[in-house]
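Hi team,

As requested, here is the filled-out complex form for the zinc ion run. I kept the field names the same as last time so the parser does not choke. Let me know if anything looks off before we queue the next batch.

— J.
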Amino acid sequence: MPVEALQDIDDDVRRNIEKPKFFDGINVSEYRFSENGFDWHLVRFVSNERPKGPLWIVPHDDENAAFDAMIAAVKAHGGVGIAVNSGPGSARRQSGNGICGVRSGTTTSCDPNRNFDAKTPFFTSAFLSHAAASQPVIALHTNSPGFSGDGNGGRGEITIYDIAAFKRGEINPRHGGTFAVNPAAEMANADTLGLTAFLAREGKPDDTKSKCGQAIANDGIHFWHERVLKSDGSMSNYLALNRPDIAYFNAESRSEADLAIAAARHQIMVAAYLKNCVASGDKPTP
Ligand SMILES: [Zn+2]
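And here is what came back:
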């Protein structure tokens, strides 16, 4: 479909439609379905030249820099990008009335990145059916500055810092985290990090994942091995528990008023992951 057809229903398209060549070389399609009381609208962006590549996902519609970074990544590296469109605004959660992912009981708003589960097969496969063999799934997120209790009004909990230690006045990486080695100024904030997931029952990340994480840190990017015990419904948890054959990377960039600054960090993290963790050719290391 022509991307213009989406400009009235997707703010991400509207924001970028006037930029010269922004959507060039990309085939756009949409997918609507209902599941468990929520109506979903996913928009898919496929590289015309290199449709076989990573699967890029942007679950949070309010994370505008992640959307812009996803389009840039599809152009630079090929593959398929899928974004959740919550409606003409930029809502983080989908309105509805039903069961959201792993949560029990009904709710009127569903966080898309808590909705990957066996109980949501349509939603989950709407993304993963586009994951090409031997290609990674790469999630792009923006991250609100700071964390709750940081003394600066921060919120959320994604940070490279050990929050408990920070509150005692010590600066340490969180469990499973590695600080960036000599980060460039734009990468030197604690809210910008790359992560992969490993299963708690395996005790620690395997050698491949350890090497991947250390190499990314050596390239000046904070890195976190997320330990997964029980799924929270996020893509990282879902894949670690259910599809360990699929390699996964999540790039979290601190949100900025200037979207281009945050999106540029995504590109740096993605390039480091693809360089260091995708073993040979297009074969990723799960
Ligand atoms: Zn997000």
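Two things worth flagging: The chain has seven helices and 13 strands. The radius of gyration is 18 Å.

Thanks,
J.
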